Amino acid sequence: MARPAAGRARELTTAGGFDPPERDNTDMNASLAGEANLRYAASLALAFGGALLFAFPLLMTMEMWWLGHSMERWRLLVFLLAALPMLLGLSYYAGFEPTFRLTDELLDALAAFAVGIILSVVALGLLGQLGPGMTLGEIVGKVTVCAIPASIGALVAGKQFGGEKADTGRHRKAHMGIAGRMFVAVVGAVFLAFNVAPTEEMVLIAYMMTPWHGLALMAVSLLLLHSFLYTLGFPGQDERRGDRNLLHSLVASSIPAYALALLVSLFCLWVFGRTQGTSLNEIAQMTVVLGLPAALGAATARLVI
Amino acid sequence: MARKPAAKPAQKSKATADTTSVLEWIAGGIGLLLLLLVVGVIGREALFGDRSPPAVLVEQVGAQAVPGGYLVRIKVRNDGGRSAAQVVVEGELTRQGAEPETGEATFDYVPPGSSREGGLFFTADPAAGELALRAKGYVEP
Fold this sequence. Notes:
The complex is a heterodimer of chains A (about 300) and B (about 140).
Chain A: H1 2-17, H2 28-59, H3 62-70, H4 73-94, H5 102-126, H6 136-161, H7 164-173, H8 178-193, H9 201-208, H10 211-230, H11 246-271, H12 280-299, H13 301-304
Helix pairs in contact in A: 1-2, 2-5, 2-6, 3-6, 4-5, 4-6, 5-6, 8-11, 8-12, 9-12, 10-11, 10-12, 11-12
Chain B: H1 10-18, H2 22-48, E1 56-66, E2 69-78, E3 84-94, E4 101-110, E5 115-122, E6 130-139
Antiparallel strand pairs in B: 1-2, 2-5, 3-4, 3-6
């Protein structure tokens, strides 16, 4: 489903698209509105593709269906309300429209949410997860839990598949301050951690690990995060950082990024009710376990955003 | 889609950025509508939702002969306010002059207000005796 959508969008892009040099000097206003609609339709198709790609592992995870109705409603509400500013920020850094204005970012974030909801309804329906005998609350819960990662995917798709949008994005990211970098790290952490966060395995692994395993995993996570950020030379990596010494780069970037990854992981566990009635030791272990994918996501965030 | 950085004059991107297409407003509007709907439904449940413990009722939907015995189709409904996980349902079939026969099924999840269906197998015809259905227990998710 994703491939045809992406393919169709690419065709639209070349046909109606981002780059028609012969029209630049002619009467632009006449065709501009139609062109803008066409371009936006192409972006929306891409958004559906991205949402599907990012959300399908979760749409096919039984814990996601269960969480939709077993999660306490106010946690679900907090989760939803926390996701909204993230969508807004993502729309700014990676939106599927090359825009700068607040109205447009807001519209993009809302459109991404619509894409997430529609995709979740269709996909969950197709997979036989919505049906008679379920209350409205259960259906809305299930759809919402799945729609949040899907709408993140919808926004990220703009950067992943888009041509011109990617360029604009990169241009903006060059001026990204500390807050921007932190935001991108958080989104990256969520992006990767979310794929495993709802599963029972997080709890199970934490039970099976000794505290020594936990400490070792922390060291490995930090090492991996640091290597991804500094030594492997990923695209989007800040060149100047290479000049700093190891201690400075660790304290200035890697350790704060890992701390953010741990916070993201703790928040996910809390939202999914994993921390309830659990001892502090177990919560710490679970946070560290989920912190591994979160740290990898934080380190490689600039690849996806 | 490799593009040279300075290939495009600045006014092109400015012109596109200034047009918020109709479709964009429609998509954003639908998003806002869906968001309000979802927040409304979840918020209402968070504020006024029923928080009572699960109350699981089991009822017989039908019975039929199947190869190897008889099948009693059952439906469990949770009238409480919270989800019940691993709901064990037992059916006991008592016939005159015979040992009682039991059938058992476990439902992964029965959310509040929702129902799930399943079945119990017996070797004897349930119509010939008395069938008692009940939920034996659950786990909080």
